[in-house]
Write a structure and sequence with these properties.
The structure is a homodimer. By secondary structure, chain A is of the alpha/beta class. The first copy, chain A, folds into 2 domains: 29-122 and 148-266 and 480-490, Aldehyde Dehydrogenase, Chain A, domain 1 (3-Layer(aba) Sandwich), CATH 3.40.605; 271-453, Aldehyde Dehydrogenase, Chain A, domain 2, CATH 3.40.309.10. In chain A, α2 packs across α6, α3 runs antiparallel to α6 and α4 packs parallel to α5. Chain A has helices at residues 41-60, 63-79, 81-92, 96-119, 169-177, 190-206, 221-230, 243-254, 276-295, 314-328, 338-352, 383-388, 409-418, 431-436, 438-447, and strands spanning 8-9, 12-13, 20-24, 31-37, 126-128, 142-148, 152-155, 181-184, 214-216, 236-240, 262-265, 271-274, 307-311, 333-334, 358-361, 365-368, 371-374, 377-382, 400-406, 422-428, 448-453, 492-498, 519-521, 524-526. In chain A, the strands form 6 sheets. A 7-stranded mixed β-sheet of chain A has the order 15-18-19-13-12-20-21, sandwiched between helices. A 5-stranded mixed β-sheet of chain A has the order 22-6-5-23-24, with no helix packed on it. In chain A, α9 (276-295) links the parallel β12 and β13. The first copy, chain A, has 15 helices and 24 strands. At the A-B interface, β5, β6, α8, α14 and α15 of A face β5, β6, α8, α14 and α15 of B.
Chain lengths: 528, 528
């Protein structure tokens, strides 16, 4: 595939008007070809109109057809894996092995949603039969199922150029639901986005999907992105990125004449609580696991553990000694973009300047002619000092973490209760400790979307039971997830059909259950 | 029960400070005792703090305990039905038979949610087992289920003093989910609200619920109501009322430092489309059903059919002749409050003043010493004129409807495509016509939460398959319902537990499935 630098609109492409930007190689600062051209307002309008006109046909396709489309995208990505990985490596400095893994994850997600809609029970089909003899009024025949909401705008992330990007989780779940998707790609991987976008464009064609179910619009978020969020035909938004960016979209969507939901995943500090007996047993092992988690991908994960709450004392010193040794031996890594590296440097300088916060590990942050490199930063402070400085709860995107030594279990609980909404919270504890720390577990459960025991938060498993979505500000709302099969729920709504004749019902709601899906019939879950 | 006119805060009551209002008998204008005192900001704070401190314990109770609580409320309402109906009749002028029916509906809702949580499958429990041998990384054990979001504020409606009020659907579904509830009752039925509130207060005590799971705060929406919506401890809002009121709450909730969802049901005009063959077959029968629906409860239903789209011609004249006769024989009825009656009068005057709109039926709107009475209003216009005057799509709350005569099927479709979000849309059609009017059905399906064939939208069945929630502006978001068992989904979020030992898992997620609920285990729905 020859990259062209144009937005993709339905089956075609936008004209190259010149105004735009080029991708940069973060490891070297080298400019990569081609130059990318920003979408115009006419391009936005054209893409949205195509999406709107494709919606009815796309949403009404048999699920097997949409599943075929998702699988064709996965197949296309796999067939072009080498070229995608090469370009993504150039644009993001992420290691090729990691990107190869991300190809697998992306295709796995597409196939997970394909299998979900092929199986069909996710439709939450419900039937309450009529009872004409009921008094005082006859009972009507009432049936309902989930239907797609309409065209969806997806803002892709910087840190997952594949799995949370053009064909990532938001796109896969929205397409699976039956919603056309318009992606605004992240500027950190322009070429990777075009490669994947053209694979989707091709899959639309080969599987006979209506034109307009997918478009890709390059441009700045405050311009092209905002035009999408404010467009009356857009019915929902998926976003992965910063809190400021996500909140701006939330506010714009809430101010529309007809507000629409924004599903924004904005990251968090993912606190890790160490309980005394577990720490005594496994201080060094916890340090090893923690080191791997905090430095993974140069710390550029929304689930990066940015806070460790641990009892002051000898076992914490063991933990810190082991961790410091490991960090000292970890080379600096190239960050995704210059601005991410700059913000990381500013973040660790801000932390280092807070009274009572001590910097434990030496940090390298270098932006030289060879690129934007960052090493891990480790800080320590007391529980009392942490509670006195709420800005220590701010996320520093990158391989940075703050060790908070608490004087008592009560203080650990206070720290937990002071936390904002989190994607995850982790507890290292013996089984006995878990049983005696209900208050801590409950305080974390209220504040997080996912609780882990004796593990680390990075590495979000893509599966049915996953929930990747915590209370605000971790996400725009904790009721939905951006990872796992529940993600499809963001892009659907129930539709109720009353007194419809059999011939006019969709298969999911017909007597005899032709799709053989699980349904709630007169209050009973059944495949009959 | 002796009415006292005070807000109920946990197990106690707010002091009577004097500033407030009294209930009025709408049929006569008579002032009813006692005087009701508005809650102070200290009262709001006290109620919210109690709710917050009750939340953890309440949410963690075995579902059977919360079910017992809901059933005790239903039992208490039934035991006091006579006194509730008497007071509600005085305050709302709704007929006693209707109110007795509403008692049944309210208790039915409470028991529906009790049975839902006793059965337990609504928890959407999911388990994906670990696979330590998986490469390149071991697969963790991941489980998730729905958990309550926290304290909920409920704004009760004017037109259902029981079923959408203090112990109505919002309260029942939030309590079932495990969320403490603070109700701001509607000022149209202050005493009825106190009666029901005190029954709930008593049920909290007899079933041993933590104090604070329920409070009732009297006061104006812009004051007490806004204080609730903006309070950091309130995590969701339920509302039934006007579009202006609902939007004000939505905007306030979206502007919070941590935005929360507002589930506002704001009504709609519930279009009814008549297709030619059905109309030819049953013009008079449709008129009879339509008349009953549009005049039911003096038209004071969010599902009142305010628009009829019908082919111009002889069959429509038959329909109108029959309808006009029936309307002429229908006496004016007392409306719920003086201001609702005043707005109804203003609404029909506005319609009557639109060029090209003809008033068909004579209307009585009288506010005399005996009260606030209104008769039904019927208008007719052409499709072209309707499309030229978008304000004819505004809801007139009361027994008013607009007949739009369309010149062609294409014009009927244009009218459908011009509509805003609706709670319901209805089609009267033969089975053959349904099969040939896909475009119309699809246009309505995109715009409505519930589609009816050959029925009428009033009388919302409380059942599992019901969906009472259409796209904005019918509701704040079409993804959720305020009627039927899906309503519980508004007040929960998934919580994911990773690598938890069996002893620390809730019963819903334990191996062996002690609750015997339907779960998604490794992708398979099963009760094993």
């Amino acid at each position: 595939m020859q990259l062209e630098g144009c937005s993709l609109i339905g089956a075609g492409k936008a004209p190259h008007r010149g105004k735009g930007a080029s991708a940069l190689e973060p490891a070297t600062g080298t400019v990569l070809k081609p130059e990318y051209c920003w979408a115009s307002h006419e391009d936005v309008e054209a893409a949205v109109q195509l999406a709107e006109s494709a919606f009815e046909k796309f949403g009404a396709l048999p699920p097997a057809r949409r599943a075929e489309f998702l699988k064709a995208i996965a197949q296309g990505i796999e067939s072009n894996a080498a070229v995608i990985v090469e370009r993504a490596h150039q644009e993001t400095a992420l290691p090729q092995a990691r990107l190869t893994g991300e190809i697998g994850r992306t295709c796995g997600q597409l196939r997970l949603f394909a299998s979900l809609i092929e199986e069909g029970s996710w439709l939450d089909a419900r039937i309450d039969h009529a009872d004409p003899a009921r008094t005082p009024v006859p009972k009507p025949d009432v049936r309902s199922m989930l239907v797609p909401v309409g065209p969806v705008a997806v803002f892709s992330s910087s840190n997952f150029p594949l799995a949370f990007s053009v064909a990532g989780g938001d796109t896969a779940s929205a397409l699976a639901a039956g919603c056309p998707v318009i992606v605004k790609p992240h500027q950190g991987h322009l070429g990777t986005s075009e490669l994947v976008g053209r694979i989707i464009q091709q899959a639309v064609k080969t599987t006979g999907m209506p034109e307009g179910v997918f478009s890709l619009l390059y441009g700045p978020g405050r311009d092209v992105g905002m035009a999408l969020v404010k467009h009356p035909a857009i019915k929902a938004v998926g976003f992965t990125g910063s809190r400021a960016g996500g909140r701006a979209l939330m506010d714009a969507a809430a101010a529309r004449p007809d507000p629409i939901p924004v599903y924004a995943e904005m990251g968090s500090i993912n606190p890790v609580f160490l309980l005394p007996a577990a720490l005594a047993e496994r201080a060094e092992a916890i340090a090893t696991g923690f080191h791997a988690s905090v430095t993974l991908g140069v710390g550029q994960f929304c689930t990066n553990p940015g806070l460790v709450v641990t009892p002051a004392g000898a076992d914490t010193e063991r933990f810190l000694a082991a961790l410091t040794l490991l960090l000292a031996a970890t080379p600096a890594g190239a960050m995704l973009t210059a601005s991410i590296c700059e913000e990381y440097r500013a973040g660790i300088e801000r932390f280092a300047g807070v009274p009572g916060v001590k910097q434990v590990a030496k940090v390298t942050v270098e932006q030289n002619s060879a690129g934007h490199f960052a090493g891990a930063a480790l800080f320590r402070t007391t529980g009392a000092n942490f509670l006195a400085h709420p800005h220590l709860m701010d996320e520093v995107f990158g391989p940075s973490s703050l060790i908070v030594e608490v004087a008592s279990e009560a203080e650990a609980l206070q720290v937990a209760q002071a936390l904002e909404g989190q994607l995850t919270a982790t507890i290292h504890a013996t089984e006995a400790e878990l049983g005696t720390h209900h208050a801590l577990v409950e305080a974390l459960a209220i504040r997080a979307g996912r609780l882990l025991v004796n593990g680390f938060p990075t590495g979000v498993e893509v599966c049915h039971a996953m929930h990747h979505g915590g209370p605000y500000p971790a996400t725009s709302e904790g009721r939905t997830t951006s990872v796992g099969s529940r993600a499809i729920e963001r892009f659907v709504r129930p539709l109720c059909l009353q007194n419809f004749p059999q011939s006019a019902l969709p298969d999911a709601l017909k007597e005899g259950n032709p799709l053989k899906i699980m349904r709630l019939v007169d209050g009973q879950l059944t495949r009959e």
